[in-house]
Amino acid sequence: MDRHPENDLHRLPDHLDRIRRYAADLLAGLDERPAAVAPDPVKPRPPAEGVGLEGALAEFAERWEPGFSGSAGPRYLGFVTGGTTPAALAGDWLTPVLDQNPAVDLDSTAPGLERETLAWLRDLLGLGGAHTGAFVSGATQSNTVGLAIAREWLGERAGVRVSDAGVAALGDVRVLSGTAHSSVLKALSVLGLGRDALRAVPTLPGREAVDVAALERLLDGRPTVVVANAGTVNTGDFDDLQALVALRERHPFWLHVDAAFGGLAALSPAHAPLVAGLAEADSVCVDLHKWLNVPYDSAVQFTRHRDLQLRVFRNNAAYLTDPAGDPDFVHLTPENSRRLRALPAWFALRAYGASGHRAIVERNIAQARLLGDLLAADARWRLLAPVRLNIVCFTLADAPDAGRIAALLREVAATGTAFLTATALDGVPAIRAAFSNWRTTDADVPRVAAALADAHTKVIL
């Protein structure tokens, strides 16, 4: 057996061709691949002698691949998860081939490609030239970086450098939000600010958007961080960013906007007003492996306060460049070395541009509205919120119960037709369907509705 990389290297063109055919077959069957697969455990095998690349591929195809879901396919609606466009796939395949570390500018043009990609994204989102960015792994890391910079800003207001003195020097900290994503709580925990620092602000009646008047009543001159939403995960709701920017003029605070998927509403002329004011945010989170449809492990963070970001993440090592001027990425995020995350996004943006991605966004919004209309016309279901963007939040019309909903969703998943997730809105057990995949067609929507109806007949009646 080929147990050493050198042996596989000699046959690498043949191996890559075999993998290409295997991957092409997977992609060809993706539309009909089960959207979800029951996570039955695969019996682990003990460590063994190597079997070479060909043997490893054969074993993966036999033992593991059949249990992988069609999460990149058209009817995986459980999370705000895109698929992978062909151009993004090409960029992602080339990423490990070239195996660049873009964290420093010492040895390649890879960091320059990342800066170009960030500039394109900044323009797509309507951010101004004052915003600079960096690539991170996902929305959780992006929110963490943004809030770490906010923590340093809080320190400035208190006359301390948190990056030097530690978070204990801050004293009491307030983070206010109407409907904060769970990753914000995780970020607060990691940053030492604590989950208890988050104070819930009342939302508008029947909405997940913050009540700006209620927020203003909570602002008493103390340094504060406000976390706003540009797209909530349950209903796709948006805070009024322009109103928050105006409020900040009267009561200074740090404005962090979680625009993980909703930021790309900027691509649609009809929905761009939802993100009006985003350019005035102090920090912004955008997750590219959602609506931009690039593979996982790709998000960006933007801020108007690079000086504070540099204080937090500066890497003091003699063998690295001085961060003065335009700092290397090693000085801007928690990671020192990482993969060239920008390459799939660069390929996708260069291949399809703003118009191609606008078409994806607008098509998904129309599909969400279509599903909402189908459910509203069916007496078995009740919409819990208007379809504002790309998410449909609904429940059983009769006696919604978490257990019944869980059983119904298991039945839907068992058919392989679609995958949706349970949630709760204002204490009501519910279901959410999120449309963000470029592969989803209008014909997929009635299939999802029919699968829900069939599962209702089998489980609820």
UniProtKB/TrEMBL annotation:
Gene Ontology MF term list: aromatic-L-amino-acid decarboxylase activity; pyridoxal phosphate binding
N6-(pyridoxal phosphate)lysine PTM sites in chain numbering: 290
Cofactor(s) required for function per UniProt: pyridoxal 5'-phosphate
Protein family membership: Belongs to the group II decarboxylase family.
InterPro entries for the chain: Aromatic_deC, PyrdxlP-dep_de-COase, PyrdxlP-dep_Trfase, PyrdxlP-dep_Trfase_major, PyrdxlP-dep_Trfase_small
PANTHER family: GROUP II PYRIDOXAL-5-PHOSPHATE DECARBOXYLASE, MIP05841P
Top-level taxon in the UniProt lineage: Bacteria
Higher taxonomy: Bacteria, Bacillati, Actinomycetota, Actinomycetes, Streptosporangiales
UniProt protein name: Glutamate/tyrosine decarboxylase-like PLP-dependent enzyme
Lyase listed as a keyword: yes
Gene Ontology biological process terms from the UniProt entry: amino acid metabolic process; carboxylic acid metabolic process
Keywords: Decarboxylase, Lyase, Pyridoxal phosphate
Membrane-spanning ranges: none
